[in-house]
């Protein structure tokens, strides 16, 4: 589904990614772990198409649900989203003056239009939104409020997972979704990710510092990213090694 080869990227002239290679197949959950400054968020932003991040070498190909292989780096951010890519932010932004319902309906229908599909009516959309909000235990009244305005950290993350459920991507790139979550919210978000994305035709690239989210979203593969590239890969046991020994010991062994 996603194939990254020898990816180099920089921001403001500073090299961040240094030859990163990774392949994610449909039906898989991959966890990316690593110390601060390793390039984890840069990888997420490059995949999402955030302005200011310049790819200087390498390639990224993506195959969405239509079975068409695309050069991801040639697509604008809205084209990547319509093709089936979702980027979850570490710090979801607030959008004053725009209701969640309005924002999400416009986002979904613009993607459907890009794919040549009919837009959802107001009633159809509200039914879908209620279903996805229920998965994340988010009150429908929250969806009537302005996007993330006045939300707690946990509410922002749950709201973003509702967005993911409504947009129904093929590939979710989640940048430290566990950041700022208490124990209860962590469980709800983890169960929401499983319900929405744990399907044979979907995949998840989960960027995290800690093991705790992986207790709920069990990864098939765990990768350590350091100095802008993946230095070690393994199964779920690798995350437990990091939790027990820290990055230095595991990276020295790598």
TrEMBL record:
The keyword 4Fe-4S does not apply. Keywords: ATP-binding, Nucleotide-binding. The keyword DNA damage does not apply. InterPro entries: ABC_transporter-like_ATP-bd, FeS-cluster_ATPase_SufC, P-loop_NTPase. It comes from the Bacteria. Signal peptide: none annotated. Residues 2-252 form the ABC transporter domain. Belongs to the ABC transporter superfamily. Ycf16 family. This is Fe-S cluster assembly ATPase SufC.
């Amino acid at each position: 589904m996603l194939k990254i080869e020898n990816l180099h990227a920089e921001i403001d002239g500073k090299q961040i990614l240094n030859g990163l290679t990774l392949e994610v197949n449909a039906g898989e959950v991959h966890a990316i772990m690593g110390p601060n400054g390793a390039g984890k968020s840069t990888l997420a932003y490059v995949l999402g198409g955030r302005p200011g991040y310049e790819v200087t070498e390498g390639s990224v190909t993506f195959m969405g649900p239509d079975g068409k292989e695309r050069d991801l780096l040639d697509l604008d951010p809205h084209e990547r989203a319509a093709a089936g890519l979702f980027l979850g932010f570490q710090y979801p932004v607030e959008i004053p003056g725009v209701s969640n319902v309005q924002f999400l309906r416009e986002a979904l229908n613009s993607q459907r239009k890009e794919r040549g599909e009919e837009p959802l009516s107001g009633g159809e959309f509200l039914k879908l939104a209620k279903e996805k909000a229920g998965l994340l235990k988010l009150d429908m009244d929250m969806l009537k409020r302005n996007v993330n305005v006045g939300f707690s950290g946990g509410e922002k993350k749950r709201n973003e997972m509702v967005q993911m459920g409504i947009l129904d991507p093929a590939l979710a790139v989640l940048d430290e979704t566990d950041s700022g979550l208490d124990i209860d919210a962590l469980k709800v978000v983890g169960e929401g990710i499983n319900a929405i994305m744990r399907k044979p035709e979907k995949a998840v690239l989960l960027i995290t510092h800690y093991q705790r989210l992986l207790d709920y979203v069990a990864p098939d593969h765990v990768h350590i990213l350091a100095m802008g590239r993946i230095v070690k890969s393994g199964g779920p046991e690798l995350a437990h090694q990091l939790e027990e020994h820290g990055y230095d010991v595991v990276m020295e062994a790598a």
